[in-house]
Every structure is written in structure tokens, then in C-alpha cells.
Write the C-alpha cells for this entry.
Amino acid sequence: MDPIHLRAAGVSVVVGFGTGPEQLPRIEHWGGALDGDLPDLDILRAPVPHSSYDEPVVAGLVPLGSAGWLGRPGLRGSRDGRAFSPALRTASVEAAGDGRGIRIRQCDPDAGLEVTTELTLHPSGLLEVAGELTNTGADDYRLEELGVCLPLPAAAAEVLDLTGRWCRERHPQRSAIRQGTWVRSGRHARTGHDASLLFAAGTSGFASRTGHVWAVHFAWSGDQELYLDALADGRRVLGAAELLGPGEIVLAPGESHRTPPLYASYSAQGLDGVGARFHEWFRARPQHPAAPRPVVLNTWEAVYFDQGLEALLELVDSAADLGVERFVLDDGWFLGRRDDNAGLGDWIVDPDVWPDGLTPLIDAVTAQGMEFGLWVEPEMINLDSELARAHPEWIARPTAEAPARGGRLPQEFRRQQVLDLAQPDAWQHIYDRLDALLTENDIAFLKWDHNRDSGELGHDGRPSVHAQTLALYRLLDALRAAHPDVEIESCASGGGRVDLGILQRTDRVWTSDCNDALERQTIQRWTQAVLPPELVGAHVGPTRSHTTGRVHDIAFRAITALFGHFGIEWDIREASAHDRAVLAEAIALYKRHRHLLHTGVRVNADTADPKLALHGVVGADGAEALFALVCLGSLATEVPGRVTIPGLDAGRTYRVEAIDPGDAGGGEPAAHPPFVQVAPPAWLPGGATASGGFLAEVGLPMPNLAPERALLLRLTAID
Ligand code: DGJ
């Protein structure tokens, strides 16, 4: 069978077929664009070493023991032990007319199994791969794993993945690729704070702007594994699979199971090149938020559970004066929710706190020209709630029996349990409550939270993370269909549910509960390795961070929040006149630059000192750019030296201006001066003029920023 060649945006994917009767499909190349005609791919047949199978072994699209693959199999399962080793043969190949997609069906009639693999190369060069297994046999097939994987070239020498915890999501870790399997598992029944949003392998020393990188993301909000399997025979794959519990997926004759999509990005321009393919793909989706991302005020770190109309009306006025455009009422508004011990499940406005409902607050918000947003946590239930008292059988548990009949509930986590959305009545009840809330109130935005891990989520006595995750997706899809103008944020104790599965049905993520600007610099940088800035919620928090205790100047907090979807999460009634003036200036800057920030190309410079970061956004047409120079800690040298500014149009001339929003604060001294120097570099007060090529190759001497301070650099092309 002839090979199939998909191409887009400098990427080629070549699918070849074995010459034996099985015609086993395999990816012969996923990497840089191949020009011209392909040679006869038989030249790629590997040698046969001693002590090995007599035919060269390849990692097929579904690597299997029957084809000699001794690594992690692409399909595991059985019919009570039988049909444990399927031998698939290609049954049909369909190529999409636009040269961007292939659908390959492989069958094993004896095992009664059929696997269909779909590959789509999106215009940005992002490759999407998904598999579907169908039981074509006469009895039940118990699926243990259906994975999706791609071959990884020998040139990849290092693996970088992301990990984290509450308030420290998405931090990179890197190691040399050795023989063996490097696996990142998530068993949270949500994506997890430690989830590896990006799982990347690359050439030695690959960095933000250099090196060949092959990276994947698994678009799933439930249990999962990402892996790099490096075999002793030299073959390697990058893969992902849903982690299924025992007996979780049993396919009756005729039934199918589909994998979540694996998104794969290759670039010869380092991690920024990889990220750019994801960003372009996001932005091309029809549901991608098109309207300017409004400035948000969220009440959580302002008032926590201490809600009341009078105080919140003051906050509304204070927010409106600053130029806020969306006011979000966080946790604490519903029945019995005076703290985090009770109330989840009772999605009714608490008359004790809100005797006239939410209408007086919503009216005040909308009268000021702002949108109103509301917090919900629909997948959860407190035992101390009307819902749990009325329907204890709706609480997800590992046993088929209810606790009253000898069963047991999982351990509590933030005093809450999970509502079993795989039960149709429970799902419908929650849908009806949310639908009523959205119908009866003028709500433009839901902050959709999920505040617990679950290591033993069950339905009818069987593991149910898969069913629960799909039920959540159905719930979001149904609500969006009924209320298409309502935007939804994915939050999970901060950034515990950031993945492309949830983002296909939500409009931004709450990136982290940590609003400390220093921590945010790293969290946002790595979240944006996959997500474009407009989907990354970034709020200016209180002067002293509530989660770390650090104190940061308002200008540093504001500059940090500018490079995302900007908001405030602070009781601004207590802000000083200086801080309000700087905040107002930052909001004005954000409004002036949000089109650039949310449509341009994200750039992360590889600086010489890891404590000095330079990151920014260059407009798609190269005409303007906004960068932040950020001092993350004490530098190793007395002066930072010349810092190169990459990503500009080399042939254009730019005017470079430094902007410190702190200057808007007037006479009141900043809590923490931005510079530690006797005199600034010569160019700084008046600005500099240089070509993009000069700025990328030679750079500019940068001022001595104090630790935990930042400066904006605005670049405008003048030719
Ligand atoms: C966790 C979220 O991340 C916070 O922003 C806040 O909404 C709380 N939950 C409310 O309980």
C-alpha cells in the first residue's frame, strides 16, 4: 500500500504500511517538512539484529506483541483471558480530500476486535490522533487499555514534563532519556495539579527558542498516563492512555470505546515553536472567545465567605471606578454555605444572606456596565446539605451498597464528596438547577470549580472516572447549548483541571490559587507553553499574598497579570491611592494592548541568567510587541548586561520604550523601588531605535531591576 503524506505549516507526517499480509500501518516520520516526492520507504527497513524476531520490529500505530513489539502495548484486554493478543490487519484506509487527515481501520476477526485510528494534521501543524476500539466478537471484551502513541526519533535526548501541587502548578522537570519507561500518572479523577500539560522530548539542551522538540498533550480531564517508552532495541514512543480501573470498560458485542485525542506538536524552534502550533490551533476553533477578554474582579480573596449586599455594593462601585468589566461572585452565596463545611449541592440563593436574591447585586453590577459572573461547583456534594439528606444514593462511592446498607463512602476531602453524575437523575437534577440559575438571573459567566481529588470514584460498585468525566462533558455541552452566551471558566482548587478536553467546552482556566506574582511568573509561563494567554486567568492579588505571605509592589503584580486574562482578586476598597492609580494605569494598558496580547505570538527569551526573564507577545504582523523584563531573584552579575529581544521582524526598525506602570502612582513612594542602580542604561529614559535583527542579535543593556520587580518594554515598528 502506498504511504500517505500529510503536510502543514512546516510539518510532515508520513504513514507507511508493512509489506506483509497485515499491511501494518506505522508513522515513518513526524517532524520537519519533507519536500518533493517520497522515496520508496523500503529504504527505511531496519536491520535484523541477533537474538531477535526474524523480521524488523516497528512500533505500529497500535503497537502489539503479535507484531513483535515488546514495549508498552497499544491495546490490552481480553475475553476472560482469551483474545489477549490481537493480531491486527489493515482493513481500510481513507484519506481526507484536503490531504490533512487519515482514518485507518485494522481488524482481527478471530479476536473479534476492530481498531480505527484517526490522524488529523491541523493547519497550524498540530497533529491530532485518536483511536476507537469496537468489539466485533460475540461476547464481552474487558478493556484494560487503549493507548495512542507516536514514534520518537533517536535524536531526542532529554524529556521535559510539568508537575506541581496546589498553588504551584505546572513547573518543569527535565531529565536525560534513558532506556526504560518514564511515566507520569494521574489518579485524581480530575486532571490534577501535577498533570503534565506538556510532555516534551527534544535534542540535547533544547530551550524556549532552540532545539528540535516533539511534544504531546492528552486531552482528558480524568485519570491518565503519559509515557515515554525507550526500548533496549533503540525504538522509542511517546504515548498516552486513559487509566482505567478493573472492569471499568466492558464492551458488549457491537460496543465501542474511543480514546481522548492526543495532540502532538513538533518544532525545530524549541518550546516556543511547539507552543505556537497549539496557540494557533486554539485560536482557529469556532468556539474560541472572540470578544475582548473583560477585566475581571473576583470576590474570593476580597471577602471570602463574608458575603453581604452592602459590602459587595461598595466593591462593585470601587471596581467600576477602576474600569473593571466583569464582577464575579465567588463561593458562599448558596444555601447554608457560610464556610466550606456545608451547602454544596444546594444551588439555591441563600435567603439568610441574600433576602432579595442576587438581583440587587446583579442590577448594581450591570447598571455600572459590567457583566456578572457566579461561582459554582456542580460535581460536588457536602454531607451537610439538603441534597445529601434527600438523595444520599447520589453520592459516588466504591461500593454498590449505600453506607446505610453496609457500603462505605470515600474519605472526605475539603469535607465534600462527589456527586455521581453517571446516575441520570443526579445529572438531570444538577442540569435543571444550573439551567434555572442561568435562566432566572442575568449571568454572563460561570466559574466552575472542582475541589477534590478522588482515588476511588465509583458507580454501582465499579470504577467510574471515565463515565463521570463524560457525564461532566455532557453537562457542560448541554448548558452551553442552552445558554450559548454564558462563558465558563474551568477551575479546580486553582489550576487542577487544565487540559484540552475541558477547554473544548470552557472559555478560560483559573490558573492557580496562588496570586503571588513571583510564583505566577513560572506558573503562567508553563501554562502558556500550551494555552494562549487569553485563556489563562491572571489576577492582581492583595499586597501581601494570601498563599505565600510575600509582599509585592503593585506594579510587579500588575505587570504579571497583564500577560494573561487580566483581573483583580483583592479587596480594592483597602487599596492606597498610589496602588489604585497604578492599577487604573495597568487596566488602561491592558485594554489598549489586549488585542495584541491575545492574538500575537508568545515569545520566551532564553536569557543568560535564569533569574532574569524576558517574555512577551509580538503582533502577528510584527508591527508591535509588548515584553516584560522580570527579575525573579538576585542576579549573579552586577548588571544584567545586554539582553537580546527575539521574535521581532528582523528587517523592520522598532522604537523601544520602557514603561513602568508604577510611575502612575504619583509622589507616593513605591513599597519597593524598581531599580538598584546609580544610573540607568543610556537608552532607557528616552527609548531606543534599532532593527529587529539588531535587537535579536546584539540586544540592549537592561537596567538593574530589583528582585521581584518588572519593567514593560513596548516596541513599535516605525517603517
Ligand atoms: C477554589 C478556587 O480555586 C478558589 O479560587 C475559590 O473559588 C475557592 N475554591 C472557593 O471555594
